Amino acid sequence: MAAIKPARLLSRKAHLVPGQLHVTELFFEVPKNYSKPSAGTLKLFGRTVRKHEAPIIPHSPKELESMDKLPYLVFLEGGPGFGNREPQESPLTRYALNRGYQLLFLDYRGTGLSTPINTNAMRKLGGPQAQADYLKLFRADNIVRDSEAVRLCLTADLPEDRKKWSVFGQSFGGFVALTYLSKHPGGSRTAEEVYRATYKKTIERNQAYYRKFPEDIEAVYQVAKYLAEQNGVALPSGGALTVQRLLTLGISFGTHGGLDSVHALILKMITDLDQFSFLTRSALTAFENHLPFDTNPIYAILHEPIYCYKPGLASAWAANAVGLSLPLFSWLNPTLPLPSTISTPLHFSGEMIYPFHFDTYPTLTELKPAAEILAAYDAWDSLYDEAQLARNEVPVYAASFIDDMFVDFELARETAALVKGIQVFETNNMYHNAVRARTDEVLGQLFRMRDDSID
Question: pTM of this prediction?
Fold first, then answer.
């Protein structure tokens, strides 16, 4: 593949936001397909942010110029499929600016304001195969190529020692960071192996849920029984609330406060059934808002392909296949009825995507044929280069959570061992979203590792 060329800067608009932040909104143009530059372009959206200072004595032109040349720290968002929040809402902003960086929040291609994936746009591409071919271009390999193209653009006029930048990857952003460290080119675990590990942690989190809210053993069963009797319930925005979709609420179990948020929703539902014998619009809307896959379709469509790290691997609906082999998740088989009595609490799934998602979300329904094509596709480009990771010279600092329901700790430890020189902070006191829920502890520890030498 040809060398990456700088992205083309289309527009730059600067303004101030509360909290003494100087934010610049940027649009770039990059190739849609780096292997075929003639295939057209995509737009990328990003925001740079640095401190805004208004001293009594105004800065000199030289001082102002030096502010624009602060080293970059790029935030790689989780997902996949989500754009960045406003810089003032990010927990990383304060830490990074106080450490002398300027931040770049770059929406991945297909997300946020970066030529976002949506059903209407996909429809214009043609049939399922054309849609699937387009979606193949939205994995970590091209996200990294985009990032490098933007780096070359933004640092073109900087001195050589400022042309490099640092990256901070959260969740899926960590996958992207490893691909970046590899300089584009696999990892070591298939989708099936990943899900066999994460289902175990999901079962543990279900046990924690029912220990904290034992009354929900009956409540969850009664809500599920009602949905089964009604053969699903239509949702306000379209799609259906079925037994299967209800039991995907367990994705919240992997986050701080997640047990409580699911309990609050179950309480709302069972109260409706007790008082009215049906689910109110209020409860159904609250359920819809809990899992907004309709507005972030990449999350559902490309979630399993992120584990296809080299040619020859197909995702093949791995979460569904593994779940069907586990008795506690027999509800994944729609032909099996609910048990007539509660011998075992109904178990929620975790961060898994299933074929039935594409039957119960209106936006995803239209994209199901393309999703089926991608699930069978096995000619993916390699995402990682283990030889390059083994000779890595870039300083790497990571936080790894022993009780993370989304990223299996042992697999994460194996991955970290592939990266030469990495330093890892491990704890059993945090969950997957700790960067947001326990910001001071996580970022404080990471920056201490960066600043302090252990020898």
Answer: 0.89
